[in-house]
Specification:
Elements lengths: L6 H31 L3 E8 L8 E10 L5 E9 L5 E6 L4 E3 L4 E7 L4 E9 L8 E3 L1 E6 L2 E5 L1 E2 L2 E3 L9 H26 L6 H24 L5 H31 L2 E7 L4 E8 L5 E8 L2 E10 L3 E8 L7 E8 L4 E7 L3 E8 L5 E8 L3 E8 L2 E2 L1 E2 L4 E2 L5 E6 L7 E8 L4 E7 L4 E4 L2
Parallel strand pairs: 1-11
Antiparallel strand pairs: 1-2, 2-7, 3-6, 3-9, 4-7, 5-6, 8-12, 9-10, 13-14, 14-17, 15-16, 15-18, 18-19, 20-21, 20-29, 21-26, 22-23, 22-25, 22-27, 24-26, 27-28
Length: 434
């Protein structure tokens, strides 16, 4: 007999067959795979303390977890420590403990139960500084062996020496002394504390403190803690602030400074310039200009509200206009324009016989001498009275003189020009105007 099924009926039968195939063949495979993937048991090791030195003792703690959903038999922990290391004491945690093999055995462990094992290990005093492996494995009758996780290496290191209370006291004393000594040295300058002395003292204190900290870190081999790092950052901020503030203050002070040419003299073959600093900070003059000709000079420092005369070698002519300019290292300038003297006594020479005095005279115009006075008394001239313009002219006067005696010699021309020079007499000596 032949059974004929309509198309709808055939479709329903096919679906039933597919479902039966999945239930019989696929689900058991998935279930088996899931059981294999789920953890059976686990163990984690920890040690204390962290710093372990040769000859010291440390504690090992192992926590074991039975993760199966059924009781387990012959549950074992087997630990391995470096050779020559000794187990001083151990907690059996309810197991049969074999000290020679460092093995713990539980006949039965319930599902989900946790065991904690603890033992102390002594490190030989002759151990070298390095990392030593420590390992372990857990096994059971119906489970795969599992390695103990957590700490797997014990590092042995000789501890750094501890800083004594005396060392701490000396370090603090060095920092305090740096502050007060810097402050005192700043005060000695002008007996005031108004020119950044406090900032300098703070900067010195922090720099010395940082240096002490760095030296101690090398000697005692301690790592930089958060406090040390914060100290370093603070030192950088304060030192940066000090030098930044100092530079800004100097710039402002330089900008506000008053530099003036107070006086100009024309001694023999020189131009002597008196420069005044009217500001409240020191300035440095490094260049002089005479009629636009530049002269580099050694840095001349002028204190606040003070002055300095700078003699610049220069061959000048009488009755000639000179434009003089001075400049500082930071760009401040001062200038003036003036006429040199119309007549000048450049040199005085006392003869060997102590009977004559010779004068070297220059004039800015053609003229004649009206008279020459020595210490207020008219003197007799030996040669003519004529003086040629810009030409050094020697004039001799007849006058007995005494050595080591000061003489003031004054010359006057018919056109009203005058000049004088004061010199101490000395045999066959030539004295120039200063």
């Amino acid at each position: 007999m032949r059974i004929s099924l309509d198309p709808v009926r055939k479709k329903e039968v096919s679906m039933v067959v597919a479902i039966l195939f999945i239930l019989v063949f696929v689900l058991p495979v998935i279930s088996t795979h899931g059981e294999a993937a789920s953890p059976t048991f686990s163990a984690t090791r920890s040690i204390s303390p962290d710093d372990i030195a040769p000859g010291s003792t440390f504690n090992v703690r192992v926590i074991l977890n039975q993760n199966l959903n059924q009781n387990e038999t012959d549950f074992e922990l087997d630990e391995v420590i470096p050779t020559d290391w000794t187990v001083v004491s151990a907690d059996s945690a309810g197991a049969i403990f074999d000290a020679s093999d460092l093995k713990w055995t539980w006949k039965s462990v319930s599902a989900g139960e946790t065991k904690t094992v603890s033992y102390d290990v002594a490190v030989p005093s002759n151990s070298t500084e390095k990392g030593y492996p420590i390992s372990g494995v857990i096994t059971a009758s119906n489970a795969t062996a599992t390695d103990v996780g957590g700490v797997l290496t014990v590092t042995v290191k000789t501890p750094s020496p501890k800083i004594s209370s005396v060392g701490i006291f000396l370090a603090m004393l060095a920092v305090i002394l740096a502050f007060f000594l810097t402050l005192i040295f700043g005060w000695f300058d002008d007996h005031k504390l108004d020119k950044g002395e406090m900032r300098r003292a703070l900067a010195a204190m922090l720099v010395v403190g940082f240096t002490v900290l760095a030296v101690l870190s090398i000697i005692y081999e301690f790592e930089l803690s958060m406090i040390a790092l914060a100290y370093i950052e603070l030192t950088g901020i304060v030192v940066g602030f000090y030098f930044g503030a100092k530079t800004a203050a100097e710039k402002r002070a330089e900008a506000a400074a008053e530099i003036t040419i107070e006086n100009v003299r024309f001694p023999f073959e020189k131009v002597a310039i008196t420069i005044r600093n009217g500001g409240d900070s020191k300035i440095t003059v490094d260049r002089i200009y005479i009629n636009k000709k530049a002269f580099d000079i050694k840095n001349v420092t002028i204190g606040p509200e003070n002055f300095v005369e700078v003699p610049q070698p220069y061959e000048w002519d009488p009755k000639t206009e000179y434009k003089i300019k001075v400049a500082t290292a930071t760009g401040l300038t001062a200038e003036t324009t003036l006429l040199s003297p119309a007549i000048t006594i450049d040199q005085v020479k006392f003869d060997e016989k102590q009977e004559e005095i010779k004068l070297t005279v220059r004039s800015g115009e053609n003229t004649e001498i009206k008279e020459i006075c020595v210490n207020g008394e008219a003197a007799e001239m030996k040669n003519d009275k004529k003086i040629d313009v810009l030409k050094p002219t020697e004039k001799t006067i007849v006058r007995k003189w005494d050595p080591k005696t000061e003489y003031t010699i004054k010359i006057a021309t018919i056109s009203g020009l005058t000049d004088e020079i004061t010199a101490v007499a000395k045999k066959d000596a030539t004295i120039t105007s200063e």
